[in-house]
Amino acid sequence: MKLPVIVKAPDLNIERAAHIAAAWSDAVLQDTESPFDHAPFSRWLHAYQQQREQLLAFGWQTFVPDSIRRGLTYIRLGSAARGEDLPHSDLDFAIVSDGTVSFAQAVDPLQQFVRTMTALGFQPCRGNVMGPNPRWFGTPADWYSRIEQYCAFPDWKSARYLFMAMDATPLSPCEPWQGIAVTVRSRLAASPFFLWQMAHLGIRRTVGLHPFGRVKWQAAAEGEFFDVKEQLLAPIVYAIRLLAIAGDVQAMATVARLEGLTQMKMLDPVFAAAVSDALWFGWRLRARLHAQAARSGTNAERMEKGRMPQAWRDCLQVHLRTAKRLEQLVCRRFRKPRGSR
């Protein structure tokens, strides 16, 4: 697989940025290795994160007026924060305001930013986990108040918001966010109820595997399909994040968290290696879906059974069994606290 050259934000313009985004997407389709060999793809993914960050920085500097942008800090959320973005990944982000720019002043420019970034391969978040949503915008004081509100009413919705805020990295230095991140982590780690909710409401029964070990293909008018993100990747990423919180592993990337858990002997090294292989397989398969969608307009998340070679199906089944074992592990570890409803 030949990797495109990484182009820095100062050397980009809108037309070139769109072309570069497409070139990196197309490069994924050059990967013709076996489903067990993720080495070439891992080089692509690591390099792609650097290019993706430059495209994001370019868009933020170009599409948001200086008068607004100077008072705001862009906080990457989800896969972007973890360094796991793919060509069709959502534009999940939060905003920290220094108090000189209000939400009312920022919302229209931020909405325009979201619309414009689609040309560079950044899809609007379907769940609206973005700065134009007032829940994801605020001063440091707003953020601390929001955290306290979530902890005061610890339902599943509040838990989800706190876990989302766990995977967050500022696009530029932001000292206030460091304190916010520490608070989020400490409040989650101190709450057996929050941890139980993620294990049993967010992870349990999400792996796409039938009880007897067969792939759980979903039915659709155009044929059976498998959702790589929801049925394989998300359960693994969420489970590793949950264990990392419990074990005070400070890393952000999922593979780094996995390595930290192994070093702390919270996971068996052989099993951890199997989990890592499952992650790389899932990212690789999903990246190919994203690249094919960009080229031909196919669904970016659904792997159609009829288009999946048998060797890849067999490999998928192996990795799903690993994911299922991880799912069961976290459900056993994080029990519902006594006295909670």
Automatic annotation (TrEMBL):
Gene Ontology MF annotations: [protein-PII] uridylyltransferase activity
InterPro entries tied to this protein: DUF294_put_nucleoTrafse_sb-bd, GlnD_Uridyltrans_N, NT_sf
Domain Protein-PII uridylyltransferase N-terminal per the UniProt entry, residue ranges: 70-153
Superkingdom assignment: Bacteria
Occurrences of domain DUF294 (ranges): 194-334
UniProt name for this protein: CBS domain-containing protein
Native source organism of the sequence: Alicyclobacillus sacchari
